[in-house]
Amino acid sequence: MKLSALFARYLYQQKRLNLPGIGVFSIDPSITIPDAADKNYNDFVQQIKYEQKPVISPDEELINFIRTETGKIKPLAESDLDSFLSDGKILLNIGKPFHIEGIGSLMKTKSGQFEFTPGGPTLPRLEGFYNEAHRDDSAKKKSAHIDDYSKKFNNRRMLVAAALVIGMVLIIWGGYSLYNRKTVAGTESVQTESAASRDTGKANIILDSVQKIIGSSKTELQQTAAAATPGTYKFIIERTASKERALKRYRQLTDGRTGIKMQTHDSALFNLYFNIAATPADTARIRDSLKSWYARRQVFVEQ
Known about the structure:
The protein has 303 residues and is of the alpha+beta class. It is built from 8 helices and 10 strands. The longest helix has 54 residues.
């Protein structure tokens, strides 16, 4: 689940959300929270209030809520929150709207004040403020993907094995026929020997065809094995031109013992990445998992 969606769930439960550098969102405690599919849901979202107050640090309850819902350790939860808010403030400073899903959007006016518009794109069903259904659906999709890949690979192996068996049968039959033709040719006339020669030519054609089938089957098997051979890929979760930002993020992830690595070229661009062994078919799934886990819009893959 996106980090902004967690903000909405926290606000709906606690009726108050304090975001450092942004301000305070609140809901009247007397208001009942409707389901996302309820016809009164849009009217409810309009009741969300915003005050541009100075908030120095996030509430401990908010950090614990993020940590519990994402399964991450506390330093990573704090890092994700800081990264999300930093991206939001960048959008505001360049005149772009900063949208928080299920809450509303902020815009920075010429006077430097934040203008809040409640509503906008809504959340999916909250399912009683829990996401077990979402997790179950993700697990089913992952399992189906793995099963489909295994079936395709097994089918190819079966086709190759069948081709080899057919080839062996044809070779045995051809050898037996050739032997019979030569035995009869030793006792028959020159005309019979000529007929045996023609049969031998046919047997050679069959053998050539069998060899081509076996060669094609071996080539397909080698190609299939090569497609499934794992390699090491570089999954870049963040790129930034700010050295201070890169070092801060790197220290946060290093403290969590995540195996993160940092790379830079001429100090112009800093990459934070993981080295992960995977097959080409698995890179998209791993990239999507990292995007979801670290709440990133993009994850780059290099080999």
